[in-house]
């Protein structure tokens, strides 16, 4: 495979990235997920090595110093980063790789991997976004306020994304993501690389 299929999924906090990615992975176990490292504290129910690699700030700094992160960013006051090894492994295994990263990470990744495809999940409305974030119950009031402030800024960057998908009904949103992935697999560059075309089509009489 010459051109990998790296799929970035971003949204404001509470926009549904984790939920949509979880569904996609359940339906397509062959998809890989880029497990990030973070200095953020584990939420209730989260597991190290499943949701993130939760590490201390000095360990994160060591990864930066050793140039082991393809990109990293500070989001809501914590650091998050993508290990280079994730991308290398998916490439080696010829697998589709999903990223749950913020708008800064998406811009860096697009810069270093221009063939990456980016999807921005939009909430159906501001009030629904607030409701979902509150209902998730993962944040203190101060952190919730900060996440909503960041959301306003993130929404100003949507024109940098290839696809916009509204996350209203979850199953429709997941189908739209699958459609994007399917269409990207059908581009001529990827068909050439994935070797789906019988070359004899061009020569047989
Ligand atoms: P993110 O990962 O973008 O921060 P989550 O996936 O955690 O967002 O979703 C935030 C909350 O909204 C979760 O409680 C999730 O169950 C809920 N949620 C996500 N998508 C939908 C949807 N389409 N309809 C209703 N609730 C949703
Ligand atoms: P959360 O704390 O809600 O899990 O994630 C907060 C934000 O960090 C989300 O926008 C999420 O997409 C982003 N994020 C998670 N991992 C990474 C990463 O490796 N790099 C970047 N740039 N952002 C990330």
Looking at this protein, list some descriptive labels.
single chain, 205 residues, alpha/beta, Rossmann fold, five-stranded parallel β-sheet, four-stranded mixed β-sheet, 8 helices, globular, binds adenosine-5'-diphosphate, binds guanosine-5'-monophosphate
Question: Could you please describe the fold and organization of this structure?
Answer:
Helix content is 43%, strand content 19%. By secondary structure, the chain is an alpha/beta fold. It has one domain (5-191): P-loop containing nucleotide triphosphate hydrolases (Rossmann fold). The strands form 2 sheets. A 5-stranded parallel beta sheet has the order 2-7-1-8-9, with helices on both faces. α1 packs across α7. The longest helix is centred in the last third of the chain and has 16 residues, at 170-185. The site of adenosine-5'-diphosphate (ADP) has 14 residues, from α1, α5 and α7.
């Amino acid at each position: 495979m010459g051109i990998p299929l790296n799929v970035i999924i971003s949204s404001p906090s509470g926009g549904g990235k984790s939920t949509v990615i979880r569904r996609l992975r359940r339906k397509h176990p062959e998809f890989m997920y880029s497990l990030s490292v973070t200095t953020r504290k584990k939420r209730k129910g989260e597991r190290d090595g499943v949701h993130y690699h939760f590490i201390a700030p000095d360990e994160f700094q060591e990864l930066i110093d050793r140039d082991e992160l393809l990109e990293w960013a500070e989001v809501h006051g914590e650091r998050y980063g993508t290990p280079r090894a994730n991308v290398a492994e998916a490439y080696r295994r010829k697998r589709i790789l999903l990223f749950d990263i913020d708008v800064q990470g998406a811009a860096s990744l697009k810069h270093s991997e221009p063939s990456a495809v980016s999807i921005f999940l939009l909430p159906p409305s501001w009030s629904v976004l607030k409701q979902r974030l509150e209902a998730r119950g993962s944040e203190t009031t101060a952190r919730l306020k900060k996440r909503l402030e960041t959301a306003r800024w993130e929404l100003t960057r949507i024109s940098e994304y290839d696809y916009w998908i509204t996350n209203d009904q979850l199953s429709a949103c997941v189908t739209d993501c699958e459609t994007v992935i399917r269409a990207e697999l059908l581009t001529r560059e990827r068909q050439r690389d994935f070797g789906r075309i019988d070359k004899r089509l061009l020569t047989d009489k």
